[in-house]
Amino acid sequence: MDAATKHGIPVGNTPGVLTETTAELAAALTLAAARRVAEADVFMRAGHYKGWLPTLFVGQLLQGKTVGIIGAGRIGAAYARMMVEGHKMNLVYYDPYPNKFLEVWLDGGCCVHARYVQEENVHKTTHKRLCKHSFSNLYLPTITRIVPPPNTPGVCC
Predict the structure, then answer these.
(1) For labeling, which of 41, 43, 68, 141 is most exposed (least CB within 10 Å)?
(2) DSSP annotation of 113
(3) Of 30, 62, 57, which is closest to residue 44 (Cα–Cα)?
């Protein structure tokens, strides 16, 4: 705080106020990546569209896929609920501490607190401030196992 004040940088903290807003933004980015929205926009603006094709920018269906979340705090848990409830996805998450509320909400049916993740089609999102100190807290073999295969969207926020 002292360094920020010294350099005239305003600092704010809004705990709990922007949880749903941030989770919704992550969900929007996930949908945009899965359905190739930005890529289709560039294609259209460049004048490449010549007519409808059955597979033109269809992207990936999220329903029935597995979303992998690294960091299941307020924002990660809110995002997980949106993706599981709204898009009927399965959930695998990593957090140093099991999120009992999230697991109870899901009734244990499709939620796995993963230190070791089975290889499967996983959409990845990160809800953890990454820096040189926190990055080492992530179990890298786990992360490499949940990296999606080519042409599968992932979101980091």
Answers:
(1) 141
(2) E
(3) 57
Q: What pTM, to 2 d.p., does this model score? A: 0.66
Number of domains comprising the chain: 1
H-assigned helices in 57-155:
74-87, 100-105, 140-146
135, part of any domain: yes
Answer yes or no: is 52 within a domain.
no
Q: Render pLDDT for 130-145 as a digit per residue (tens, 0 to 9).
A: 455 444 444 444 444 4
Which residue in 78, 115, 117 sits closest to 98, CA to CA?
Answer: 115
The residues, any chain, with a CB within 8 Å of residue 153's CB and separated by 6 or more, are 30, 33, 34, 59, 60, 123
Give the CATH number, domain containing residue 130.
3.40.50.720
Q: Of 13, 148, 15, which Cα lies nearest the Cα of 89? A: 148
* Contact between 93 and 68 (Cβ < 8 Å): yes
55 falls within a domain: no
Q: Which amino acid is at 8?
A: G
Please give the C-alpha separations between residue 44 and each of 36, 48, 51, 153, in angstroms, as whole numbers: 12, 6, 11, 21
